[in-house]
Amino acid sequence: MPRHPWLSLAAILGWSGLSVQVYLVLLARWQEQASLIGGLINVFGFFTILTNTLVASVLSYAAFGHPSAAKRWFLSPAVSSGIAASIALVALAYSLLLRHLWHPQGWQWLADELLHDVMPLLFVMYWWRVVPKGSLRFWHLGLWSLYPALYFAFALWRGHEIGVYPYPFIDVAELGYAQVLVNALAVLAGFWGIGLLILSLDRWQGRRLAEARAHSR
Fold first, then answer.
1. How far is Cα 64 from Cα 155, in angstroms, rounded to an integer?
2. Tens of pLDDT along 35-66?
3. CB 43, CB 22: distance < 8 Å
4. What is the pLDDT of residues 201-210, one digit of tens each?
5. With 120 labelled, which of 8, 62, 165, 192 sits at a CA distance of 20 to 30 A?
């Protein structure tokens, strides 16, 4: 796979956004004399942070990585496309459900923009320009769905254990299980819509490239 210079900047931005967010969380915990380990567990309990970590990993392998089994796995079309669907969900859900709930300032604003707006855009651009097209199948959507589904189950279990939920639309204490289930299914439906779009674009682009190669012979 050819390397693109802009991928280096994208990878750096990805890790920078994560670093700023983790620093801010740990700083707040330090000032409150709370557990720093607990702060790390909390911050990596967010779907946004987990997915941005996957995004930064893929971009790093694409920009800098040496040949390895991990690089082949992360850069495979099936895995990169699933991560693209997940980070697109992050951007969509944040804009529709969460952005209006707070107005971050300073460094928190920077982290917020990088994690929810800049990195989703850059990774979708990476998927479109770099990831090979034409190999995805409909059953890949089922595999991709395991990630948000397992995250949801984990978030509910953890929230039940400690009484804290990472997102207000899955806060069982406030909404009850019935409404939380409806909200989760709506988010999952959004993920399926994104996934179907990715599958359609992959098929269209793969067919177009195959026809171009056939005509060039």
1. 33
2. 999 899 999 999 999 999 999 999 999 998 78
3. yes
4. 999 998 887 7
5. 165
How far is it, in rounded angstroms, from Cα 185 to Cα 192?
10
Structural domain spans, the chain? 5-216
Separation of CA 130 from chain center:
18
138 backbone dihedrals φ, ψ, rounded to 5°: -60, -35
CA distance 167 to 181: 13
Look up residue 8 and give its two tokens. 């280096």
pLDDT band at 16 (very low <50, low <70, confident <90, very high): very high
Task: Report helix, strand or coil for 3.
Answer: coil
Query: How far, in Å, CA of 77 to CA of 202, rounded?
Result: 10
Q: What angle do CA 104, 83, 14 make, to 5 degrees?
A: 45
pLDDT of residue 124: 98
Give per-residue pLDDT as tens, 140-177. 999 999 999 999 999 999 999 999 999 999 999 999 99
Closest CA to 130 of 201, 65, 188, 80: 80
- Tokens read off for 174: 């406030």
DSSP 118: I
pLDDT band of residue 3 (cuts 50, 70, 90) is low
| CA–CA dist 202, 194 (Å, integer) | 12
CA distance 39 to 119: 23
pTM: 0.94
Alpha helices in 94-171 (DSSP H): 106-113, 119-129, 139-162
